[in-house]
Design goal:
Structural class: alpha+beta
CATH topology of the largest domain: Chitinase A, domain 3
Largest sheet: 8 strands, mixed
CATH class of the largest domain: Alpha Beta
Oligomer: single chain
Shape: elongated
Order of helices and strands: EHHEEEEEHEEHEEEEHEE
Strand content: 25-35%
CATH architecture of the largest domain: Roll
Helix content: 10-25%
Distance between the termini: 52 Å
Number of domains: 2
Mean pLDDT: 90
Length: 284
């Protein structure tokens, strides 16, 4: 049976929302009771049932492999996990990453669209494996998906591989790319100049045209274009503006900056909160 990828899950959540809207209170309440009974039955049949814990938001979890010395992700960190998801009702595999590879997401940013999935990062340490049992309101809600019936309880098997702060993400990205950093500010705005241009930098209060391509650290493009910009006017995010101020006419650069210089804790359109961004810039 066809599985739904987490990337598709994001698109679905953006399009129609996930589980917060209760359209029929009586039906929802009945399904909550049914989900709870199914979860309790699974726990009772599990050999590690005595270790099952009910979290304050309503999910249950069982630690399969503990790592007391591991690191617990903090709000805004990037958590990298391996996971699979199953219908609790019949053990059908319905959620995975293509190739069953790892997946990274900003902790607490709501990027996955699944409240229960978001919560798992706060309940694990690096190197740990755990089973999470989600009632429908923490999973796919009341809406039927490709192969997921409405009101389905979901079982997630998750391994937390690593957790990285935004600064660590920037350092990892630079090392992976082998970039030679031209300049790094106290705010961790990183500039990698890709050509040599002499003369004064743009500075504040100057009108320029900027050609840009915006990408995540995965190199996935989210925007591109050419815009007129008056530096220091507050018309663009701080990291973009501060980078342009430090560049010269005709200069090209790759710039990287953390979310306090980007879309902060709120995100924007397809950009989740707590997201490190990179831009390819050219001052025309």
């Amino acid at each position: 049976m066809k599985r739904i990828s987490l990337a598709l899950c994001f698109l679905l959540s953006l399009a129609v929302g996930m589980s917060g809207c209760m359209n029929d209170d009586n039906q929802d309440e009945q399904k909550i009771v049914e989900n709870e009974a199914a979860i309790e039955a699974y726990i009772k049949a599990d050999s590690l049932a005595s270790k099952a814990i009910r979290d304050s938001i309503g999910l249950y979890y069982i630690t399969r492999k503990a790592n007391p010395n591991g690191l617990r992700p903090k709000l805004g960190d990037a958590a990298t996990v391996k996971f699979t998801g199953y219908l609790l009702a019949n053990n059908t595999k319905v959620l995975s990453i293509p190739g069953d590879s790892s997946f990274s997401f900003p902790v607490g940013g709501g990027a996955t669209g699944l409240p229960g999935f978001e919560r798992t990062a706060f309940l694990m340490k690096t190197g740990e494996k755990a089973t999470f049992l989600l009632p429908f309101y923490l999973a796919f809600g009341q809406i039927e998906r490709v192969n997921i019936p409405a009101y389905s309880a979901i079982r997630l098997e998750i391994e937390l591989i690593k957790t990285r702060t935004e600064i660590q993400q920037i350092d990892d990205f630079i090392a992976k790319k082998g970039f030679k950093v031209s300049e790094r500010t106290a705010e961790n705005l990183v500039i990698i100049r890709t050509n040599t241009v002499t003369g004064d930098t743009t500075g504040v209060g100057k009108s320029v045209n900027v050609k840009y391509t915006g990408k995540f650290l995965s190199d996935t493009k989210f925007d591109e274009g050419t815009i007129p910009l008056t530096t220091g006017a507050g018309s663009v995010i701080p990291g973009f503006d501060k980078a342009v101020r430090k560049m010269r006419k005709g200069e090209k650069a790759i710039v990287v900056f953390p979310s306090p210089l980007g879309y902060k804790t709120t995100g924007y359109k397809t950009i989740p909160p707590y997201t490190v961004l990179q831009f390819e810039l050219e001052i025309l």
